[in-house]
Amino acid sequence: MARGDRARRRSHHLRRCRSCSASAMALRVLVTGVLTAGAVALYRQFQSIISALMRPDQYILDTERESDHAGRIAELKISSLFEGIQGLKIFQSLRIPDPGERQRRDIDMILLTNRNLHVVEVINWSGTIELSPDGSWAQHYRNGATIHHPNILEEIKGRAVLLESYIERRGVILPPGFVQPKVLLVNRDCRPEQAITIQPEVLSVDKWEHFLDHDLGRMESKRMKSTLKGPEQEGMLSELEMKQLQYILRTAPMWDRLELEGGRVVIGEFKGFRGHRKDMSRLEFANRSAVSHLAIIHQQSWIRNFFVTQKVQVVAKARDYRDANANWPVKKQYEEPLGQASVDSDTDVVFQTAGTSKVQQFGLLDVLTLSLSS
């Protein structure tokens, strides 16, 4: 019996050892898995933090000329000054086809009233601006450096002619003198010489602020009220023509617009998304032909996102192809989202900034909205 008891105790001990070994192994696997998941989560959060610190403005300044970057910031600030003026429509970042050169010409801003269409070039230069003998504009900095630019006024006049021709090809004949080119010198440190400022189309700071208040502000509102009381005046468009013109400008080619965290805006061309294959499949609905606007909704839950990859929601608005001449009813597809998808936050927007040849990537964590031209 003693020998049998010892055998049973030995067998029981071996079973307990094997059980303990299995439990220890399972515990080690669990701990290793938790530590690995934690390390991966920390690495992902570290990537997100680095992405947030490496703001896209740095990339813009590296690849886009400083003057161009300053000009685009000025365009956004100036356009906000025109918002809310009664009867004024604003269109930005148009790219009008130039059939002769087989390319597109950029127009910073269009200001449309019932009397004029102002084709605006926004210049944010500092220093002294002189008209050179060859017609170019020479910009002289305080440090003695000089940059020679093309004649900005002649360039914007040429683009105004192209725009008028483009509008006529799409069915609206504008009255003579309706299209007005304008150059806005918006930097208070800009000192243009008289040979430049004597041109009525060139508005330095003291002039363009008067233009904003007088030509587009109170006086224009008074003119609009007077026209409501009587017949249409010479040089003005009819209500139908104005409606058609707004439709033409709204559907004209333009740069795509990327709005980032902090109110920063980048103008350029959307090239697509880059990320995991499953996310690319989910974003197939977000194509230019069907979508005009994408909103990026960030899910703020750091505790939850510590153990899983952070997600963002991409919501698409359908492109509105309704013609300006037709009295279309408001349809469901133009009110509700065309599609939406939840994707990993490490998905990138691939974007080529206007004025550069380099394609850049912006993380969805930095993106608020993306507007796509037709």
Automatic annotation (TrEMBL):
Membrane-spanning segments: 21-43
Superkingdom field: Eukaryota
Keywords: Membrane, Transmembrane, Transmembrane helix
Annotated NERD domain residues: 70-186
Organism the protein comes from: Sphagnum troendelagicum
Taxonomic lineage of the native organism: Eukaryota, Viridiplantae, Streptophyta, Embryophyta, Bryophyta
Coiled coil: none
Short name of any one Pfam family annotated for the protein: NERD
Official protein name in the record: NERD domain-containing protein
